[in-house]
Design a protein that fits this description.
By secondary structure, the protein is α/β, with parallel strands linked by helices. Helices cover 37% and strands 18% of the residues. It starts with a strand and ends in a 5-residue tail after the last helix. The chain binds S-adenosyl-L-homocysteine and iron/sulfur cluster.
Length: 367
Amino acid sequence: MKCDVKSQTVEELQEQFQAWDCPTYRVTQLLDWLYRRKAISWETMTNLPKPVREKLAHTYSLEILQLARKQGSRDTTQKFLWRLADGAFIESVLIPANPALYGEASDRHTLCVSTQVGCAYGCRFCASGLEGWKRNLGVHEIVEQVLAVERWHAAEDGESNERLVNNLVIMGMGEPLANYDNLIKALHILNAPWGGGIGARKITISTSGLAPQIRKLADEPYQFRLAISLHGATDEVRSRIMPVNRKFPVSELASACEYYQSKKGKMITLEYILIKGVNDGLDQVKPLAELSRRLNAKVNLIPYNKVEDLPWERPDEAAQDRFADALSARGVTATLRREKGHDIDAACGQLRLKTERELAEAAPVVA
Ligand code: SAH
Ligand code: SF4
């Protein structure tokens, strides 16, 4: 099987071009077509000689994500459902600048990308895990989410080649650290000046807490930010909603995060979804505050986004404020983020689940 051209680093492409006796500046031209002009076919790369284009087409695939469905409108959160080459669906969510979240005031747009089709970790509250894990995304399928959104935006606005996404959060469907090698290579490409050009400090990887991979990530030469989906500050509460906690309990997760923090500085955020009657009790505040202090991490409180078929609810606003105030009173930097994409199924996995169910209902039954 051919590998996709967008899974290749500049060094790998240079090596291939050398083997073809093709000058290195041709690689620069190719990269310009891929990452700046976001070309969708070899034929459009008109400044590359035809024999080179033929060699490329023979050696690499050039897969483009197909837009299956979109929700939301300009200036709000927009959700894209993509159809992959094998027919599987994944989601990306485009969020307009909101400096209070992960980025800075100068940021234009944040894109939330997926790393797997489905998820094997089965957190009880999450739509992505509801129907299990199907497969890992390839490097190019992670990279293409950024390019496909920018391509779509350029077509909508008539702005060509304009950089749209300058902040990335790896918080879509799937557990990024369970697709470690593809994730790191995709982020290398999206970060590289010859590729996506997105600063490493503007890339946040979210994990449900795979402690060994957090340590491995700490040893990589990148300054990526890390968001920990904590959702419970004691083993008792966390294990009830996140099966991964039985494998890597809070103490083990905390020491892996401490290692990350020791290598990277102030780069960790603790994510805490507030679920009514499950983890919103004030008994969680003290251990959460201690953990936040130990890791020099801020806390993002997110009221739970209702998922169809699941019994969980968000606490009322008074209860949310009570929890946030109790944390602040302990000196923790906590933000209460009333979910922006609430109306459009913005929590991870929900649009895909809905579409797959609708398709299943619409599909003729074959005996
Ligand atoms: N697997 C990774 C990244 C994807 S999930 C992780 O778990 O961190 C991205 C974030 O969305 C996680 O913090 C997850 O806990 C949260 N999430 C999942 N379902 C949600 C829901 N229904 N409402 C609010 N947040 C949700
Ligand atoms: Fe998977 Fe993250 Fe959802 Fe848990 S919260 S099921 S790890 S995508």
